[in-house]
Amino acid sequence: MILISENPLSPISSILRNSEKIVLEDIGAGKGNLSTVNLVRFNSIERDLVVKMSLKEQSKILASPITLERFKIMHNTEVSVYKILENYPESNILRPKVYDMKEMTYLNGKVDAGHITMEMIECCQPISVMENLTVNQVTEVVIQVARFHALGYNLSKEEKSTIPIHLIDTWFVELFCEKNMSLFIKLLSNGFAELVGENLMKKSIAAFVQIFESENLEKLNNDCEFERVLCHGDVWPPNLLFAKEQESSCLKFKALCDFQTSNFGNPAQDLTRLFCSTLSGSDRRTNTRKLLELYYQELSNHCSPSFSVEMLEKEYAKFLPFAAAVICVPTPIRAIMQIRETVDENEKSTVY
């Protein structure tokens, strides 16, 4: 039996690629639509690993399909980030150990799917965006986000070239294009108008439409008055790995994952997404300044920031509506779809 080396990306990769594999569980189901994530048993080694694979065909879950080119950009960005993290172990950024990676290629209509094979972090507790974390739990994540942002200041020109600077004005423009927004609006109106009232629903939809107008997204992406940092791009509960401690049963932050939307951008994009998706409204409003100061202090421990806390606070306010909208539009829609699937299954059981 061959033990996995604790050194990620070691020669073990050739053993993994040639090993017989058994898919044990689809652990990515319901958590995203940009890749597949499976728990896989490799017959030639002693433990099960997580295998994340890029998709081989366009995703048609939305009115406007997600293209193979977009899948390629995202998967290969994540591969680049893991390579960078391996080159800078002193950054002390919590993330899964990676043992094998392959970029996705898409040329002349031919697709060669990429993959990332990584450790399975035990005893992970799924965190829903519907739940609230404590301020102390979010503090642990803020420290890791600050270290990740600081890493961008230390990269070589060649390393920086592997990470996009356009995310909000590309991916989010595609995601919230006119066709998709029409679908989102229809689903939100049908599912929540009765619950929140027609007038509030109309006001909310009007605000969402304005936030996601392409020119506003382009301005948000490009109007950065200081040096860009290495952003994660999708800091919210599905990408935060917490595990229960055996003695206390308290949740302990274990790792950041899913770096496919990483980009060089405004630090506020990560901080607003994190605070909006994990804290209660009252905790967020009460602790924003304290958490921004904590972030800045940790960032300053690893680099010389090109901005002040006051500048960051201003950028935070600018990004806050966008971060809230990114959560408020897709999350209820996913809930609606899950309810419909449950209803459909119940109807089937009564018929058959």
UniProtKB/TrEMBL annotation:
In terms of superkingdom, the source organism counts as: Eukaryota
Pfam families for this protein: DUF1679 (PF07914)
Task: Spell out the InterPro entries in the cross-references.
Answer: CHK_kinase-like, Dhs-27, Kinase-like_dom_sf, Oxido-Kinase-like_Enzymes
Domain CHK kinase-like span(s) in chain numbering: 115-305
**Which PANTHER family does the entry mention?**
CHK KINASE-LIKE DOMAIN-CONTAINING PROTEIN (PTHR23020:SF18), UNCHARACTERIZED NUCLEAR HORMONE RECEPTOR-RELATED (PTHR23020)
Q: What is this protein called?
A: CHK kinase-like domain-containing protein
Name its species: Caenorhabditis bovis
